[in-house]
Amino acid sequence: MNYLPLMPFMKPHNTTNPAMPPRFRRPSVVTWVIAISFAAFFIQGLIAADVTLDRLVRGASNIVRFLGQAFPPDFSRHESVAWAMLETLNIAVVGVTFGCLLSVPLALLAARNTAPNAIVRTLARFVISVARTIPDLIWALIFVVTVGLGPLAGILAIIMDTIGFAARFYSERFEEVGKGPSEALTATGAGRLSVIFGAIIPESFASMTATSLFSVEKAIRSAVTLGLVGAGGIGVELSTSMRLFRYDQAAAIILLILVAVIGFEQLSSAIRKRIINGEGVPQG
Predict the structure, then answer these.
(1) Helix/strand/coil for 99
(2) Sorting pLDDT into bands at 50, 70 and 90, what band is 69?
């Protein structure tokens, strides 16, 4: 009688305990500790947040009242709101531009194949980690204290936030570049800088452009919230409207923010598609 051989993905039945299929393994002690710790932390979070049915019901009624007062939106202050939105876009674009420019040399120092030595690479990665770990709102508070209220604090906060975001992805892309072009330039006697600007950066340009566009999208959303702590932009207008209980004006501001963010996301998506399709990418 012929039997079919067992395929790699097939396992024999568990003869010792037929009730338990072999694919279900008894959890280890570490797994139980992690699961119990997560459950305890989750329950403690619910208790600390004071999540009750009464609060949820009252919250639902409050949101209905807020929406009733917010609509229809009041666009009577459209001129000042438009200028504030323009200031927000200026903060985002200027901050991202300087942030991306500063991210390139920092990423070159952090990448394994471009860093001069391990010490410099470690220091560069530490700077990137610090910039990425501290939230943009904290950076805004720091710069509001150091340079005062206004757009400059927002721009500096966006620069630091962009360095933490873009420099990390730039460095990872530099490390992924194939060795072929670099070795070919090295064989012709090219120095380190010639290899970087002649092979590594051109090969990474498309990915860097996409990352930069993501940075702008992120910065526009961040610039809105930075205004809440006095870093300029439309966040100041939104905070003022909410404090004065002018929810109809706040709704108008929120709609304007929504249109601006979605509009740029669509533009950014179209540009990235052209990059992926190979259009507009400089040939090395």
Answers:
(1) helix
(2) confident
Separation of alpha carbons 142 and 129, rounded Å: 17
Residue at 273: amino acid letter: K
pLDDT tens, 158-179? 999 999 889 888 888 888 877 7
Segment (H or E) for 141: helix 136-147
How large is the angle between the packed helices 118-133 and 151-176, nearest 10 degrees? 140
Task: Report the 10 Å Cβ neighbour count for 168.
Answer: 20
Distance CA 58, CA 50 (A): 14
Q: How far is 52 from 2, CA to CA, in rounded Å?
A: 65
Relative orientation angle of helices 136-147 and 151-176, to the nearest 10 degrees: 140
**What is the spatial distance between Cα 109 and Cα 116, in angstroms, rounded to a whole number?**
7
For residue 85, the one-letter residue type is M
